[in-house]
Amino acid sequence: MTSDMTALTAAEAVGASERGDLDAGELFEAYRAAAAAEDLNAYLWVAEEAPAQAPAAGAPLAGVPLAVKDLFCTEGVPSQAGSKILEGYRPPYTASVVARLAQAGAPLLGKTNQDEFAMGSSNENSAFGAVLNPWDRTRVPGGSSGGSAAAVAAGSAPWALGTDTGGSIRQPAALCGIVGLKPTYGTVSRYGMIAFASSLDQAGPLTRDVTDAALLLSHMVGKDERDSTSIGFPGTIERPSATSLKGIRLGVPEELSGEGAGIEPGVLAAFDATLKLAEELGASIHTCHLPHAPHALSAYYVLAPAEASSNLARYDGVRYGLRVEDGGLVGMYTKTRSQGFGTEVKRRIMLGTYSLSSGYYDAYYGRAQRVRTKIADDFRTAFDAFHFVVTPTSPSVAFELGSKIADPFSMYVNDYCTVPMSLAGIPAISIPNGLSEGLPTGFQLAGPAFSENRILDAAFALERAIGFDGSAGRTP
Amino acid sequence: MIDREQVLHVARLARLDLTEEEVARMSAELSDVLGHIEKIGELDLAGVPPTTHVVEVSNALRPDEPEPSLPREVALASAPAVADGGFLVPSPQAGGG
User: Fold this and answer.
1) Residue B22 falls inside a structural domain
2) Which of A64, A379, A386, A473 has the smallest C-beta neighbourhood within 10 Å, fewest atoms?
3) What number of H helices and E strands is found in chain A?
C-alpha cells in the first residue's frame, strides 16, 4: 500500500498502522519526501529523517506525522514565527501541545510558513515569502496559518497544528478546502506558543476531515501547570458519529450573513445550499441576532494590537534572534526592532502602542473591552435559543496574491465572521462547503464554551451530506 | 487623524525607527484604521463591565517547590552576545540612543 499511504486520512492511517497494514517509518518517509519536494512554500523546515525511536507500542496516534506552525517552539528546531527578528532561534524547549502530541505518537514532520507573528490573513506577511494556494497558485492560502492549511490541502501533511487569534485557523482552512477548528479558549496549553495576543491565541487542528480534527484535538486538550490560563477540557473529545441533525436549532446571524455583511454572492449561495442540507438532516434554521457583531472587528483591532505591542516588547536583541548594533543600548533596541519586524507587525505595534498611550486608553482599549463583554453576552443570548450559530467562514474565496496587501483594512475584513467567536472565547469549526468560482468556501459552526463534541458531531453529519471533493487541491 | 508628530511620538514609545516614507504611510494607514475603529465610540456602554479574560481563572498557583530549570549555558545559547555567564548588552551610557 506504499503508493497510497498519503491518500489516507490520518485516522485511516492510524487504523491501518494498528492493524499492521502500514509501517509508521515508511509513512513518515513518504510524507517527509512530499514535504521536502513541495513547491507552495508551505514549509520552512522539514525533518531530515524519521524519529530514531519508533512510536511507543500502543501510542494512540501510531506514528502519523504532524506539521506544526512555525510559532510553536520546538527544541533545537528553527522556530521564528515567520519573522526575521528571531533569525537563528532554536528554542531550548518544546511547546506543551507539541510535546503532548509527540508523546501520543505524532512526531514532528516539519514547521510551516505563516504570517509574521500570526498577523495577517493571506500569509503574505511572512519574512520567508508568501505561500501559494494549492487550488490556484496565483491566490493566497489565507492566514495566518497558511502554510499548515496549504500543506494539509495539498497532501504534503496528514494533518497540522495552527493557531487562531481572530480566525487564523478557520479562514485558511476555508480558503484551502479543509477542516479547521478553534477550540474554547484555555482548553489547549499556550506554553511554548510564541505569543501574539495572549487573551485570544488558541492552538487547534487543521485536517482533511472532521474525524481527524476530533482525533488530533482529543490529544491536544488538557490543563498545563506551565500555562496559568489553561483550564483543560471537561471530559474527553470523542470520535464524531452523528448522521442526523434532528432537533438541532441553528441560528443564522443576520449581522454576519445578511445584507451589509459583505459576503460574496457565490460564498453566500454555497452557505445557503448547506443550510438546506442541514434542514434535510433534520435541523431547523432560524434567523438570529448578534447585535454587537458588526463592532467585533473594531474591538479586535484595538485589543489584539494592544496585547501584541506588549508581547513583542521582548524582541530587543538581548536574549535571542537578531541584534543590530548602534553604539548604545537604546539605539541597539531600536535598530534591531526596526530591521527585524516587517511592515504589518510594525503597523500593529504602532496601533497598539497608540491605543494604550496616555490620553487614549479609555477611548480605545477601555471601550473595546466593554464591547467584548457585549459580544460575549450576544452569544450567550443566542445559545439560549439555538444549539449553534452558523455563518460563512470567510466573506470571500481565496483572493489573488498582492490584491489586498496594500490596503490594511481590506485585509482585516477577512476576519469579519471569525473575530466575534474569538472575542467570546467560544469554539468554532470551519468545514469545506463546496466551491464558488472553482475555489473552496467554508461553513462555520460555533457553539457555547466546551461544546466541542457537539460541534464535531454536527460538523460530521454535515460533512457527509456536503460530500466535498478536495482532490483538486492535492498536488500531483 | 494621526499626524506626523503623533506617529513619531508613538514610534519612540515602541522603540521603532521609521523612515520618512514609513512615517507618511503609517500616518495615512493608522488614520484609516482608527477611522473604522472609532465607530465603537457610538455605542452606549454605560455600566458595561470590561472583559479582560474570557474564562474564569483566579489565582492559578502551583506548589512552590524547587525544580530544576534550564542550565545557564542552554539559556544563553541563543543570545547574540554573552559575557561572564550573562547576556552582554551595549552600555546604556554609550552613544546612539
Assistant:
1) yes
2) A386
3) 15, 11
What CATH number is given to the structural domain containing B15?
1.10.20.60
**Which residue, chain included where needed, has cell 433534520?**
A282
Quote the ipTM score. 0.94
pTM over 0.90: yes
Q: Which one of A80, A303, A329, A350 would you mutate to disrupt binding with B, by most B Cβ within 10 Å of its Cβ?
A: A350
Separation CA A402–CA A47 (nearest Å): 31
* Residue A83 DSSP symbol: -
**What's the average model confidence in pLDDT over B73-93?**
94
Query: What is the overall mean pLDDT for chain A?
Result: 96
Residue A168: active-site member: yes
Contact A390, A251 (CB under 8 A): yes
Q: How many Cβ contacts (< 8 angstroms) between chains A and B?
A: 185
Name the nearest CA neighbour of A183 among A239, A232, A123, A248: A232
A424-454: pLDDT as tens digits: 999 999 999 999 999 999 999 999 999 999 9
Res A260: pLDDT: 86
Domain count, chain B: 1
B87 forms beta bridges with B82
The fold adopted by the segment(s) A2-241 is Amidase signature (AS) enzymes (3.90.1300)
Q: Does B13 sit within 8 Å of A328, measured CB to CB?
A: no
| Yes or no, beta carbons of A334 and B16 under 8 Å apart | yes
The per-residue pLDDT for range A274-304, each reduced to its tens digit, is 999 999 999 999 999 999 999 999 999 999 9
Reply yes or no on whether the pLDDT at A198 is more than 90: yes
